[in-house]
């Protein structure tokens, strides 16, 4: 009958969803943050490096307030 496929479908669904949820905990453990930034494009990599250089934490939203002012003489 049609319901005989339900256990196999459940196993496949669980097996395919485990890596997605495991990465949340793994990144939280290794990076200290559960989310990664997308670095597929060069611009995204440059922005990651900029944020890391300005605040030492690339996961904090940075704006103009994060850039230190130059001393006026």
Automatic annotation (TrEMBL):
The gene is LOC111595331. Its main location: mitochondrion. This is NADH dehydrogenase [ubiquinone] 1 alpha subcomplex subunit 1. Accessory subunit of the mitochondrial membrane respiratory chain NADH dehydrogenase (Complex I), that is believed not to be involved in catalysis. Complex I functions in the transfer of electrons from NADH to the respiratory chain. The immediate electron acceptor for the enzyme is believed to be ubiquinone. Belongs to the complex I NDUFA1 subunit family. One of its GO terms (cellular component) is mitochondrial inner membrane. Keywords: Electron transport, Membrane, Mitochondrion, Mitochondrion inner membrane, Respiratory chain, Transmembrane, Transmembrane helix, Transport. InterPro entries: NADH_Ub_cplx-1_asu_su-1. It is a single-pass membrane protein. It is found in: Mitochondrion inner membrane. The chain crosses the membrane at residues 6-26.
């Amino acid at each position: 009958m049609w319901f005989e496929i339900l256990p196999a479908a459940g196993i496949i669904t669980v097996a395919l969803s485990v890596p997605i949820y495991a990465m949340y905990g793994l990144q939280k453990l290794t990076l200290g943050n559960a989310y990664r930034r997308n670095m597929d494009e060069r611009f995204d990599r440059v922005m990651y490096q900029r944020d890391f250089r300005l605040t030492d934490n690339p996961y904090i939203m940075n704006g103009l307030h994060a850039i230190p002012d130059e001393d006026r003489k």
